[in-house]
Amino acid sequence: MRIEILYPELCNLYGDAMNAEYLRRAIPEAQIVKTSLKASPAFADRETNLIYLGSMTEYGQTIAAEALQPHRDRIVELVGGETTFLVTGNALELFGTRIENEDGSFIETLGLFDMYAKRQMMRRYNSIYLGTFNDIEIVGFKSQFAHIYDSGAKTIPALFQTRRGAGRKPGQTEEGVHINNFLATYVLGPLLILNPLFTHYLLDILGVKAHKLPYEQAAMAAYEARLHEFKNPKTGEEY
C-alpha cells in the first residue's frame, strides 16, 4: 500500500499533519511518500492508494494550486476511479473553480467540482462542529477565512450532514464533498484522531484487514466525551 502526503512543508496547519501520522501508525506496512513542492507526485505515474492534502495558509493555496495544475487530468482520472483522497481544511477549496478575494481578484483552482470559495479575510470563522457520516457521528472544529458556494444547479454530494456549526457555508447542512472515494472536509481536529469510527471506515475502503487503531481505547473515550460536550446546548458553537 502506498500513501502519498502532498506538500508537507506547506500543508502543516491546525495539527492536520497528525492525520498522516495516525495513518502511518495504523498501517505500519504502508509505504509513506512525502512529496515536496519540487518533486513530481507519486500519483502521476505510480499506483497510489491514498492521497492526503491538508490545511495551508492562503498564500500557500496559490502555490499548491500551481503545483497541482499540471496534474489535473490525472487527478480527474483518479477521483473517477477507486483511489482514495483525504482532503482537510482549506485544501478543499483547491478542487473548486476558483477562490475569490474581497477585492474581486481570484485564484484559479483545479475546477473538478462546480463550486467556488469566497474569502472574508477580516472575519475568520471559528466554531465547533457536530455532524453525521452515514450512521457515524462526527466531531471537530473549523477555523477558516472562506466558505464554499455552489456554482450551478448540479448537486455536489456532501461528506457530512451538519447538526452544529456551518456546512459548506453558514446556514447549509451539507458539508464537504464525497464523490467515489474522494473525501474532503473543512473539519479540523485532527479529523482522524478525533473520529476513530470514521477512521475505521477509511481503513475499510483502503482494504486494511482486521485493523486496530493506535491508542484506540483512549481515542474512543475522548470521542465520547467530546460528543457529550458538543451535544450540550450550553456549549457555544462559535468562538
Short overview:
The chain is α/β, with parallel strands linked by helices and 239 residues long.
Layout of secondary structure:
Blueprint: E1 2-6, H1 17-26, E2 31-35, E3 50-53, H2 58-68, H3 72-79, E4 84-88, E5 98-100, E6 106-108, E7 115-119, E8 125-133, E9 136-144, E10 146-150, E11 160-164, E12 174-175, E13 177-179, E14 182-185, H4 191-194, H5 196-205, H6 216-231
Parallel strand pairs: 1-2, 1-3, 3-4, 4-14, 5-7
Antiparallel strand pairs: 5-6, 7-10, 8-9, 8-11, 11-12, 13-14
Key phrases:
single chain, 239 residues, alpha/beta, Rossmann fold, 14 strands, globular
Characterise the protein shown here.
The protein is an alpha/beta fold and 239 residues long. It has a single domain, classed as Rossmann fold. The chain is 25% helix and 28% strand. The strands form 3 sheets. The chain has a 6-stranded mixed β-sheet, with no helix packed on it. The chain has a 4-stranded mixed β-sheet with strand order 6-5-7-10, with no helix packed on it. The chain has a 4-stranded antiparallel β-sheet with strand order 9-8-11-12, covered by helices on one side. The mean pLDDT is 96.
